[in-house]
């Protein structure tokens, strides 16, 4: 208990309501910028405050912007940035709006640049790459590409924005084959901090190109990503829910899938260990992905012998699997991650700690802590180094395990 009290003591001044309110009062510069944006962009693309804005995390939902504007072209983004620079007005860029903290995608007292009208898809003549507007969410991107029987290195959750996903790294069902999303971006269309538009690739701007792959979101505003496209039809996917009694088998199988089965690059998986408040118990959910339309693919045969509570395993389109990954909005979310060499013992130990530590706080309404455990495959690490490495600085030979500690309350 002691560490928690200490942490709260330090956090209190930061989150005090007085401070938050002061921050939310728009500056005169932002009021001026909003007036200009209103006249320049009109009522279909300009919204005072947060009117008609819904985002995933409640902390962001509560943040109040001076106004929100929806560009439709890269030139619009440049114009908006000019206005904001001239007015010295703060801003945030919203792709999917799936980030967790105020100012990540909803500006506190400034202008929210909402990219949702920029969802173009241009497939190259040879079908090897696709230029995507950065306002896509993963679902709109999958659906758009499935019309061409193609896909790209997308993630598991339909309402996550392509922008944040691809700039941060991007774990994908196809990562064992091609690496992370950031390893498969050939070109960025970027509005620089001085509002100038540039095309960034490893020939035009090698340093910026390196920084944009895994260096997150402060190098400018990306308006288009040109990414690898790969043929895709329906695939094997879905998940099974297990009672906590199956823990030893799950731990063992997760370890085997990460290490022994690394040779089968059509396979990807992750599993979660989650507290179910209604049942006052923990459950496991294991998600299977196989790039081909094969039921019960070889790597999952042993896993599929484990008795389960419920299952959504099936052959379907990536877009439909991504819908299954949606977590309802309205919660306040905290994330933290840790990466280590695969170890069933360490996974078990972390689960034990979670079970023990939540006891004093487990009755907080809506409280849903979980550990989401997934491999960073050896082939994905290799793909990264073959592309000259990245700003994410992943340096390891073997597969790694990445664990996300996620808490909703
Ligand atoms: C905003 O929401 C209101 C109420 O739901 C709706 O009537 C209006 O059409 C929406 N406006 C826009 C621009 O989406
Ligand atoms: C996609 O694949 C299906 C099934 O093979 C085929 O009928 C359809 O014509 C393909 N569409 C495109 C755009 O290639
Ligand atoms: C904007 O920044 C880029 C990169 O530093 C520079 O090349 C360009 O001249 C700048 N443009 C203006 C208008 O200052
Ligand atoms: C991959 O490894 C598994 C487990 O060792 C083995 O059963 C399988 O035959 C291997 N597959 C290929 C394609 O090498
Ligand atoms: C996705 O699922 C819906 C039903 O939930 C179905 O109507 C639709 O055809 C599916 N989409 C594809 C591309 O298979």
From TrEMBL:
Residues 1-20 form the signal peptide. GO terms for molecular function: FAD binding; oxidoreductase activity. Residues 61-232 form the FAD-binding PCMH-type domain. Keywords: FAD, Flavoprotein, Oxidoreductase, Signal. Belongs to the oxygen-dependent FAD-linked oxidoreductase family. This is FAD-binding PCMH-type domain-containing protein.
